[in-house]
Design a protein that fits this description.
Order of helices and strands: EEEEE
Shape: globular
Largest sheet: 3 strands, antiparallel
Strand content: over 45%
Strand order of the largest sheet: 1-2-3
Helix content: under 10%
Amino acid sequence: MAYEFTNSKGVKYYLHFKDVNLKGGRIQRIYYFARDIRAGALDAVPDAYKVIETERTGMPILKKK
């Protein structure tokens, strides 16, 4: 089951990841939240990160610990 975060407004978001190719050919993993479960959904927050909510929009984001 995908990791679920409910913000202060009661909206549910699910954590996902995607590997992207950068210009130099390096592959970098990005994390993002979506309102629905898509391909690349994660079951838990990665160890080096924590979830915080933006004050203005209420969107969850990952921040390094």
